Amino acid sequence: MTARPIDSALWRTAAVLVLGTFMATLDSTIVSVGVDTLADEFGAPVTGVQWVTTAYLLAVVTAVPASGWLADRFGGRRVWLTAVVVFLLASLLCALAPTLPALIAFRVLQGLAGGLLPPTGQALLARAAGPDRIGRVISVVGLVPLLSPVLGPMASGTILAVADWPWLFYVNLPVGVVAVILARRWVPASEPGGKGDRFDFRGALLLSPGLAVLVFGLTWFERGTPVVAGIAVAVGVVMLAAFVRHGLRAEAPLLDPRLFTRPPFGVAALALVLLGASVFGTMFLLPLYLQRGPGLSTWDTGLLLVPQGIGAAAGSVLVNRLVDRISPRTLVLSGIGLVALGTAPFTQLGPGLPDWVIVLSLLLRGFGAAMIGAPVMTIVYRRVEPARLPRAAGALNLLNTLGGSIGTAVLAVVLQARLAARGPDVAAAFADAFWCVLGLAVVAVAGATRLPRAGAAAPDKKRGHADA
Questions:
Q1: Rounded Cα distance, 310 and 319, in Å
Q2: How many domains is the chain built from?
């Protein structure tokens, strides 16, 4: 059967929903370049100001697991619109924050709202597109999370060059207002699931705080407090283990652990975790090296990272043309190969590595990353019946977020250890850390070989529940 064409109405819906994802993902990185500026403004140490970013990421991790239940209970569009409004209010409060603790508190509120936007938007989009069109649509809108690690630092550097720090948050206001106005007109309403499931409070008290404590602990290893970090990691692991036990017994858990045992969700989950770790991990390591090693300015560093965004855009065009024609596994394996090929030169960082090699490597990495995320999400969304899309979207976005957060934290720990071991040879320490990034690609290949050879068809009504 010939796939339906993507009409203008669906593209309008996608364009509106992607604005929410754009705001949420951009704000995860936009403050990174402004850390020194905020430290001067509030008279605080850099380690304290870093919580402006860390608090946002922890709040996102906390909010994502609840997105599926909220969409089922109140309807996807209503949850999405509410999240945008709260995100705008939090952005305004961040811009007006009188003290650093107030700014961190408002960033938590902003992260809680931002964590709901990508999964709820993806579920709405998957429902509007249907199984036969979701692959082509997601290949385009899935580009936004790949661009945010590049665009965030560039936007921050540009804003701080011409305006004061509050504009890092004011910039969200016009985007969000436009998104709310257009969503009420162009995003189809979605009724609540009507299942009547009670909110899994026990699961929420174990999963979201467990993930947040785990990420918190990993970030503190980098700051030289191993005792605090070790205790936090241990507590996080215990809480997550308790959640898994609870999830296997509960009738309607916040996130069903059995989901990861059902093909192709398990290997798709592994691919998304590793993709998040690789993309965000590299965007943590490389800018830091370029400023510490060659001594580039923040603006020059941002410009040197642009090729990854260009590669991701080109890759999304290719995926859009091929996602319905060739095996998803072929696309994903090819993408992992390109990411690995683009990472290999970074294991040889040093004064002798020309800029053109970095540019070419980032092009390859961006192109390859676009060939992984969209096909993986397409495989899962095509196998999930419409009623279970919010839960699936929440799980997928949680995995990608965790991959980025935990991957970055682990690489920071590795980098800190290698800097201590290598002494003044900064380039060698960063090169050692990139060997870990390359290792992620090897693990990803092992998982991707188990993806389906052919594209998955629409969910079978009789077994849709099991496949979801």
A1: 14
A2: 3
Domain span at residue 370 reads 258-453
**DSSP alpha helix (H) spans, 187-296:** 201-221, 226-249, 265-292
First to last CA, the chain: 24
- CB 389 within 8 Å of CB 123: yes
User: Counting beta carbons within 10 angstroms of the beta carbon of residue 174, is it exposed (0 to 12), middle (13 to 18) or buried (19 or more)?
Assistant: exposed
Q: Is residue 466 over pLDDT 70?
A: no
The answer to whether residue 467 sits within a structural domain is no
| Residue 3: predicted pLDDT | 65
69-106 core/surface letters (b: 16 or more CB in 10 A; e: else): bbbbbebbbbbbbbbbebbbbbbbbbbebeebeebbbb
- Tell me, yes or no, whether 279 and 373 share the same domain: yes
Q: Is residue 194 part of a domain?
A: no
Contact 369, 275 (CB under 8 A): yes
Q: What is the mean pLDDT of residues 217-234?
A: 80
Which whole number is the average pLDDT over 385-413? 77
pTM for this entry: 0.78
Residue recorded with tokens 């996608």: 14
Of residues 338 and 208, more confidence is placed in 338
